[in-house]
């Protein structure tokens, strides 16, 4: 039977579905009709402060009265901005100043965004925010208590509050219906354990797919290091797994990578007239350092050979330009060093000025392939159109890697048809701390997005697989009292064999190119809880995904 209450419930349900499933234009058409400007019911369905760098409480209270917001918002986006508080004033009887409930900072974190979210809730009557994006990466970030106050009762479904190492209990208390979650991690194992515990992210029952990639690889890396340390017999690789990082150099002061570097070369000229070069152990933009960190994160036992490219910054395009000539020389240097893997987190477009150098790069790539070197390069991140950038365009023996979102889908700027595999490449947090024990205040974080990130992870994954296979060969020989047979290791350094191995790590019976590492690397970690530590290497040696007959 019709009544106003049931009609309002249906209306609210439909509105929620429209805002949840439709894009902005389609949702407003459905809610307000084609003549939206003439509709007295029209409301703004999002709140976005992109481009705002300064904000004050008085501006919010007095300058935004004209905002007509829906009680359900598709999203709220808050950039890195501080809200300047107004001086405390005497509240009228029965009234409270907007910030009366906000405690002064106790030194444990910011609280100023409470002003903004309180205004949304109380002044603009916003009841639900489906997606929240807050840039809170700069220190000091907001306290957990402040975040709870901001989002409590708002029904957030897509959580992207960009604070590092955020306590999972905050999310589960404030937004138990979260279905999509973005986490920002500094590399602390204690945080990973907290997220993975029963009282951690597992409490978010509606989470569509918990992001396992980095967690899985970090846990396996820790397990592998412990397995080697506690083994009944000490093993040492006969042929260290070497990865050439061809990029803008690597910061030698970064302790996460400095002990893993086995030299390098620079092809970057600082001043040709005076014959001055930029050293390979300096990374002007920090990109090469970040890529090296990611490789080491996945494969802690890797050895790095650093090759610095010649590049120029193009202010008009806002990006760096790599010279094909230096890239060709770098690939040849990697061949001369007899590396196992070449990681190339960059692309070069062919033009009239560099055609000859591109041919030299292609020739070097072909030479590396003939030597059995596994090569990984980044997709161009240019959307749905054929990718004709180099080095990928010049060879079918190079792994072309694309970025994926946290839940495995190809990023919007990647066409999965033109890549071999997808790995995490959106909003990946990399600690930018050189770990200087004399000055801990130098710690910062970078959030990196792009197929270059995914390429570094793919290179690290291939290195880890080679490392585990060789370790398994040596372990079995020790266990059986025989000579070391490295044929399985050498065979895996073939392009087609590594493709087959990566394919086995993708979802079974699926066309997805996303490498779901947990299908392989979770098992030995879980089984280790029931095995004696001195036998853990047997779990590594028996990983069937890396065998040709699996």
From TrEMBL:
**Which InterPro entries does the entry link to?**
Peptidase_S8/S53_dom, Peptidase_S8/S53_dom_sf, Peptidase_S8/S53_subtilisin, Peptidase_S8_Asp-AS, Peptidase_S8_subtilisin-rel
Which PROSITE patterns does the entry link to? SUBTILASE (PS51892), SUBTILASE_ASP (PS00136)
Q: Where is the active site?
A: 247, 287, 452
Q: Where is the Peptidase S8/S53 domain?
A: 241-466
Cite a single GO BP annotation. proteolysis
User: Do the record's keywords include Hydrolase?
Assistant: yes
Q: Which Gene3D superfamilies match?
A: Peptidase S8/S53 domain
Q: What is this protein called?
A: Peptidase S8/S53 domain-containing protein
**Source species, please?**
Oidiodendron maius (strain Zn)
Q: What is the lineage of its organism?
A: Eukaryota, Fungi, Dikarya, Ascomycota, Pezizomycotina
């Amino acid at each position: 039977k019709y009544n106003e209450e049931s009609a309002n419930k249906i209306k609210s349900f439909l509105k929620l579905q429209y805002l949840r499933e439709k894009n902005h234009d389609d949702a407003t058409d459905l809610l307000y009709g084609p003549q939206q400007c003439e509709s007295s019911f029209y409301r703004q369905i999002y709140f976005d402060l992109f481009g705002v760098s300064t904000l004050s409480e008085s501006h919010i209270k007095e300058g935004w009265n004209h905002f007509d917001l829906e009680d359900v918002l598709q999203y709220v986006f808050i950039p890195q901005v501080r809200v300047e508080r107004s001086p405390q004033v005497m509240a009228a009887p029965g009234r409270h100043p907007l910030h009366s409930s906000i405690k002064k900072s106790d030194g444990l974190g910011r609280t100023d965004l409470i002003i903004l979210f309180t205004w949304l809730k109380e002044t603009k009557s916003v009841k639900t925010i489906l997606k929240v994006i807050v840039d809170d990466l700069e220190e000091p970030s907001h306290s957990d208590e402040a975040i709870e106050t901001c989002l409590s009762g708002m029904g957030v479904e897509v959580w992207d509050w960009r604070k590092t190492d955020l306590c999972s209990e905050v999310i589960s208390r404030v937004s138990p219906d979260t279905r999509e979650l973005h986490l920002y991690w500094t590399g602390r194992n204690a945080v990973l354990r907290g997220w993975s515990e029963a009282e951690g992210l597992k409490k978010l029952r509606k989470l569509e797919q918990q992001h396992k990639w980095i967690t899985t690889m970090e846990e396996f890396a820790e397990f592998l290091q412990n397995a080697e340390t506690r083994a009944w017999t000490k093993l040492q690789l006969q042929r260290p797994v070497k990865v050439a990082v061809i990029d803008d150099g690597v910061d030698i002061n970064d302790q996460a990578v400095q002990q893993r570097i086995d030299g390098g070369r620079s092809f970057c000229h600082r001043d040709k007239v005076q014959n001055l070069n930029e050293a390979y152990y300096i990374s002007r933009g920090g990109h090469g350092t970040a890529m090296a960190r990611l490789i080491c994160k996945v494969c802690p036992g890797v050895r790095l050979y650093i090759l610095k490219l010649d590049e120029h910054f193009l202010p008009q395009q806002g990006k760096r330009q790599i010279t094909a000539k230096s890239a060709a020389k770098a690939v040849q240097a990697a061949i001369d060093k007899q590396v196992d893997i070449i990681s190339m987190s960059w692309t070069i477009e062919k033009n009239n000025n560099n055609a000859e150098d591109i041919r030299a790069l292609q020739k070097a790539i072909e030479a590396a392939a003939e030597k059995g070197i596994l090569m990984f390069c980044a997709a161009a991140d240019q959307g749905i159109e054929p990718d004709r950038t180099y080095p990928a365009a010049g060879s079918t023996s190079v792994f072309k890697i694309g970025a994926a979102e946290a839940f495995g889908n190809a990023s919007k700027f990647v066409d999965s048809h033109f890549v071999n595999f997808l790995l995490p490449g959106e909003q990946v947090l990399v600690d930018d701390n050189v770990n200087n024990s004399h000055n801990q205040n130098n710690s910062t974080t970078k959030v990196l997005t792009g197929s270059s990130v995914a390429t570094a992870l793919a290179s690290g994954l291939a290195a880890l697989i080679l490392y585990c296979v060789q370790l398994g060969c040596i372990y079995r020989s020790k266990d059986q009292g025989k000579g070391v047979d490295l044929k399985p290791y050498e065979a895996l350094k073939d392009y087609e064999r590594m493709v087959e191995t990566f394919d086995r790590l993708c979802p079974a019976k699926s066309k997805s190119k996303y490498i779901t590492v947990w299908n392989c690397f979770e098992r030995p970690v879980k089984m280790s809880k029931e095995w004696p530590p001195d036998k853990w290497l047997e779990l590594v040696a028996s990983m069937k995904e890396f065998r040709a007959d699996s």
